[in-house]
Task: inverse folding
């Protein structure tokens, strides 16, 4: 029998802080080493799929290694179960595959696939600086509490605990996560399980890792677009990951100068909040908001994986004068696995990148046709490539699709005119990027005649915008006209500019689509398109940030050849106005990352730590000690009974299942309704939980415990507040065994009686 009384906990407090700090450092070291090892192992594979890039794909190596080990651990688990041994076998399999690829490349082509010192050092410094920067930020805002962090932590714990897939639903005993895309959580759970990181520390390490992977991948994309220019690689990374929108400046003026928040909710949620709620009734997150907010959602976890696909697509776009897009089957498989990973990681992303893949494959074979005039070869090559990519991005994930049963959304509906985005809100979100992009695109209109046509097109777009009640047409139609035609013209050559034109065109199309239709889910009324805008606007940010950085690269190259003393007065004045405007926009977008970081740290006022459960020591130390004991002593996924309530979402309810990953009878009720659970069933479960705690009837308790297969009864301060807990029945040692005694009591149900 395992007893832990309050006196034992008190004795350990003396050494707690010192031990905690040492453990934090050790976890960071082990975590960083395993990520580095996965990156180094994957260099030959990244070099093979990114052989046409300036960095030979090295900026994508870590993300590729994590993706491949995650996939192999997941697929091997169907034979071996999910455990540390399976993960280790997956790492060894990756080593073997990478070694074979390296030997084959070296034997047949005698090319050096290991990056040169400059690429290696630059990428290592970029990744390490980003990782440790945001690790320090997380050190001061570690708390896994508030917003939807409970949901994220529950899913992460469930994935780590499971021995098979799909994992158990931690908030609905007897159910599974077959309604949710969970491979994003697995991508951080696999390295975490491999180096035995405590889940409450893993949560914060994972956010720092995702931040660093994204920063490194953005850097690589900018570096490769500019043929190895480090400065513009960093500019792309800063634009994509660090910058905020103009709302950060507006909110700063209101809160700290005028001293009146933009909205009531801002005064409740803090300075940073309004920058993600610019368009009414929607969510407009962008990377730095997502990271500083700190919810380990699937849309955050998926960002490096679609940047990985984007990196490989850039390599495909650059490949010229060859009939085959993929030089060998291994390259095809790695790309297809990377693309296919997006759906089970965050299904909203897959259509965007599958569509982009389709367009880039089409561009490749059109370019091949223009150079070789081989119509049959081009058409057959296109259809073969699309077929193979489709098959190999779907079939390897077949076990996921066979069990996937989402109920939260289905079908589409049209966006009403009153809900459409206005021009001012769109400019607040993307003003800096659009300023640079339009400057670059318009500068390519070499004659007054073309400028005149463009002015007419703007007028026509404004007319259509008014009669169709779609305000954004005045921006999106000119953007499409200026990017689509140059993209088509660039198809034979497929230069970096052409890739940027494609990203701009895709971004404009996505933005237009969000003004026309939205995905139907359980959210209705004014908020009906909230999730559609939420999920797809992140891609707008990614594409426009990359395009804006490259636009500045092109414009700066052109401006350097325009010395002020050699320009007419009109042109010199125009250049100065443009520069001042750019500086103002950059400064405005820089307010958010700086102010939000400091205000989040100040508002949280947490003891510096990487342990996301540390806050519980002040909130309810009894819970903290009991939950730590459960993490260390309870194996598998037995059902635990804890308090439940109809209004449990976004509260402290479900803290046991959240912090342990053990399934409970019912967790956050509102979320389970959104995920498609029967509301009547949820109501019955709430009543049954109440009965188990409150009834004096031992027979009824045993029947209900058997109904939900409950193995542990948890009685803490929250249960005593919500129920008239009758503990006498749990003292019957015929049926129950007390395994934890103190401010919290935990009883184990005896089976087989």
Result:
């Amino acid at each position: 029998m395992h007893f832990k009384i309050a006196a034992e906990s008190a004795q350990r407090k003396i050494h707690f802080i010192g031990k905690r700090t040492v453990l934090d450092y050790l976890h960071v070291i082990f975590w960083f080493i395993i990520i580095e090892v996965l990156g180094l192992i994957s260099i030959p594979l990244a070099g093979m799929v990114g052989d046409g890039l300036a960095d030979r794909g090295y900026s994508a190596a870590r993300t590729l290694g994590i993706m491949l080990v995650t996939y192999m651990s997941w697929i091997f688990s169907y034979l071996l179960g999910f455990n540390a041994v399976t993960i280790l076998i997956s790492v060894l399999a990756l080593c073997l595959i990478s070694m074979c690829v390296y030997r084959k490349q070296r034997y047949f082509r005698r090319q050096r696939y290991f990056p040169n010192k400059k690429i290696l050092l630059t990428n290592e410094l970029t990744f390490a600086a980003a990782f440790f920067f945001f690790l320090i930020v997380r050190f001061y805002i570690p708390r896994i509490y508030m917003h939807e962090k409970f949901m994220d932590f529950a899913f992460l714990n469930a994935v780590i605990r499971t021995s098979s897939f799909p994992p158990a639903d931690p908030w609905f005993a007897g159910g599974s996560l077959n309604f949710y895309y969970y491979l994003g959580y697995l991508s951080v759970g696999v390295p975490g399980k491999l180096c035995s990181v405590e889940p409450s520390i893993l949560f914060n390490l994972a956010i720092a890792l995702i931040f660093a992977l994204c920063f490194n991948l953005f850097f690589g994309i900018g570096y490769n677009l500019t043929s190895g220019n480090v400065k513009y690689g960093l500019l792309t990374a800063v634009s994509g990951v660090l910058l905020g929108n103009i709302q950060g400046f507006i909110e700063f003026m209101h809160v700290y100068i005028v001293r009146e928040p933009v909205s009531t909710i801002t005064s409740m949620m803090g300075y940073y909040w309004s920058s993600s709620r610019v368009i009414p009734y929607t969510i407009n997150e962008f990377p730095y908001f997502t990271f500083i907010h700190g919810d380990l959602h699937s849309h955050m976890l998926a960002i490096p994986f679609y940047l990985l696909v984007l990196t490989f697509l850039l390599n495909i776009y650059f490949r010229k004068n060859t009939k085959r897009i993929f030089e060998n089957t291994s390259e095809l498989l790695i790309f297809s696995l990377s693309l296919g990973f997006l759906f089970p990681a965050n299904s909203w992303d897959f259509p965007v990148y599958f569509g982009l893949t389709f367009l880039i494959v089409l561009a490749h074979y059109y370019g091949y046709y223009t150079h070789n005039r081989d119509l049959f070869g081009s058409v057959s090559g296109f259809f073969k490539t699309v077929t193979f990519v489709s098959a190999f991005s779907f079939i390897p994930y077949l076990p996921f699709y066979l069990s996937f049963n989402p109920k939260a959304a289905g079908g589409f509906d049209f966006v009403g005119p009153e809900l459409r985005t206005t021009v001012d809100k769109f400019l607040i979100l993307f003003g800096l990027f659009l300023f640079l992009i339009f400057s670059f695109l318009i500068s390519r209109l070499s004659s007054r005649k073309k400028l005149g046509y463009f002015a007419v097109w703007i007028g026509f777009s404004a007319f259509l915008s008014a009669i169709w009640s779609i305000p954004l047409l005045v921006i999106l139609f000119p953007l499409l006209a200026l990017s689509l035609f140059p993209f088509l013209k660039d198809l034979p050559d497929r230069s970096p500019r052409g890739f940027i034109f494609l990203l701009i065109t895709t971004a404009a199309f996505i933005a237009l689509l969000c003004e026309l239709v939205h995905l139907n889910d359980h959210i209705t009324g004014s908020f009906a398109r909230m999730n559609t805008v939420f999920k797809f606007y992140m891609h707008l940010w990614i594409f426009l940030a990359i395009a804006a950085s490259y636009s500045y690269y092109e414009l700066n190259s052109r401006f350097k050849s325009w010395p002020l003393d050699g320009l007419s007065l009109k042109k010199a004045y125009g250049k100065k106005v443009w520069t001042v405007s750019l500086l103002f926009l950059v400064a405005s977008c820089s307010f958010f990352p700086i102010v939000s970081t400091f205000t989040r740290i100040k508002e949280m006022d947490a003891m510096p730590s990487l342990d996301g459960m540390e806050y519980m020591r002040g909130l309810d130390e009894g819970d903290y000690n009991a939950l730590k004991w459960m993490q260390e002593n309870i194996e598998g996924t037995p059902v635990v009974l804890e308090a439940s309530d109809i209004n449990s979402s976004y509260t402290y309810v479900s803290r046991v299942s959240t912090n342990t990953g053990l399934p409970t009878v019912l967790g956050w009720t509102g979320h389970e309704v959104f995920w498609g659970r029967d509301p009547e069933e949820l109501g019955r479960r709430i009543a049954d939980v109440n009965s188990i705690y409150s009834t004096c009837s031992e027979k009824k308790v045993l029947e209900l415990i058997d109904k939900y297969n409950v193995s542990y009864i948890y009685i803490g301060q929250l249960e005593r507040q919500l129920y008239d807990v009758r503990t006498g029945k749990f003292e019957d040692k015929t049926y129950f065994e007390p395994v934890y005694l103190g401010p919290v009591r935990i009883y184990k149900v005896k089976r087989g009686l």
